[in-house]
Amino acid sequence: MAVFQLDDNLWFPDPHLGEDDGLVAVGGDLSVDRLLLAYSYGFFPWFSYRWRKEPHWYCPMQRFVIFPDEIHISHSMHQLMRQQRYRLTINEDFMGVIRGCATAQMRHLEDGAWLGPDIIHAYTALYVQDFAASVEVWEGERLVGGLYGVCLGNSFFGESMFSLVPNASKLALIHLAQVYAQHGGRLIDCQFETPHLRSMGGRFIPYDDYLSIIHSEDDSGQPR
């Protein structure tokens, strides 16, 4: 097992050689090109920006994912959705969502906070180039929840979500899965297991299976 030091060149090591917790490399930068290369092989940056001077890159060998057509909607969530109390949108307020993810429940004050200014800048740059997206949950004109992540080919790589009212992040995830399934999306990468995500249909698959899905193509040779 090893942790590799990245440099200014765009490359990542074989993730099979990384640590048991998924840490594979440190260093490099958060440029659009490096992030796109990272996600195309299942790497993602995750580090405490207050205590780490350079990015830490993870690529776990067991991937916790949700297949869009397997999203679990509980009876209580069905009831909430029928009430139409909340409005759901996509890419209407990316900056509001990423800032909400950073600050909800005072996350930005925690020692291990990872969604700092550099991450916000990097993923906003991805959004500007149409490689990132957000789902918003509105109560009237107030943004009360949402999620954001990276979009590549047939896969959505979830980064963070937040709720200011009960179940707002669940509504956002359900909306993402339903819309993504309608447009041929095959996989939502959750990065890490949580009880919240498991209850909604999340499960582990091996990295090699995961990689074959995100690299799969249709008969025309285009990612699907």
Written overview of the protein:
- The protein contains seven helices and eleven strands.
- The protein has helices at 32-40, 75-83, 94-103, 117-128, 168-182, 195-198, 207-214, and strands at residues 4-6, 23-27, 44-45, 56-58, 62-66, 87-90, 132-139, 142-152, 155-163, 187-189, 203-206.
- A seven-stranded mixed sheet has the order 6-7-8-9-10-5-11, with helices on both faces. Strands 1-2-4-3 form a four-stranded mixed sheet, with helices on one face.
- The two termini are 33 Å apart.
- Mean pLDDT is 92; it is low at 218-224.
Write the layout of secondary structure elements.
Blueprint: E1 4-6, E2 23-27, H1 32-40, E3 44-45, E4 56-58, E5 62-66, H2 75-83, E6 87-90, H3 94-103, H4 117-128, E7 132-139, E8 142-152, E9 155-163, H5 168-182, E10 187-189, H6 195-198, E11 203-206, H7 207-214
Parallel strand pairs: 1-2, 9-10
Antiparallel strand pairs: 2-4, 3-4, 5-10, 5-11, 6-7, 7-8, 8-9
